[in-house]
UniProtKB/TrEMBL annotation:
SUPFAM superfamilies: TPR-like
Alphabetized SMART domains for the sequence: TPR
Organism from which the protein derives: Gemmobacter lutimaris
Keywords, alphabetical: Signal
UniProt-listed InterPro entries: TPR-like_helical_dom_sf (IPR011990), TPR_rpt (IPR019734)
Name of this chain's protein: Tetratricopeptide repeat protein
Keyword Ubl conjugation: no
Signal peptide coordinates: 1-18
Source superkingdom: Bacteria
Amino acid sequence: MRHPVFVALCLGGMAVLAACGRGTSDAEVQKALKDVNVIDESNLSDIMLTVGDPNEAVTYFTNTLQQNPDRPDLKRGLAKSLVRANRPAEAAKVWASLVNSGQGTNDDRVGYADALIRANDWSQAEAQLNLIPPTHETYERYRLEAMVADSKKQWKKADSFYEIAAGLTTKPASVLNNWGFSKLTRGEYAGAEKLFLEALTHDPTMFTAKNNLVLARGAQRKYDLPVVEMTQKERAELLYTLGLAAVKQGDVKVGRNLLQDAVETHPQYFEAAARSLAALEG
């Protein structure tokens, strides 16, 4: 990980030596060094936005931005880092500063809307999305449009946006899961089941989709586990979810049996399932 920095430093040394050799002014030498520093910062910024600790990234971008207050890339990095650190309200303020500065892009406004949704400011998020031209067709934009439509119970609009978003990404599992959950909350259980299954074809490891799938099936009184990839622990947890769904439907005997299966299947002691089972038997 130190190689890019080392190479940049070598380049910086070569620039200084070359400058001195031909009698270049100090101003030009400083410019050469500044250009090298920008390369270093770019590499470090990428690291901070991907593998770095979110709070360390916030500190890095805050300090660097104080030294370079007019750089939009640093504002962008700070806003993204604040979102990763679960500080969406603060992120929204940084995004607002960027989009109102005249240096922001349509993607920045999408990021602003995302932070507002995370901060539970749905009306402002919708207002920001409405300012984005319709020609800006990206996955993130339509994913947020779908969520806003969902929050307003505009189901046809939401379905349309979810479908567009799913078609604009090579990894649609997350948006398909969100779409399925939307249908689950509407009581469209068969449609929700289909979407959760589709999400799992794209990401077989997504446990949230597996759990939602079991909820959709339980709501239809389908009390057998679906044929999807699962670990022993996941199987126990899905049996537990299905057991609770059965009890909620009034099928108490079925629910009790499923909870018993969950306790016996789990590789460790399954306290939540055992407690629910004891409550039923008590």
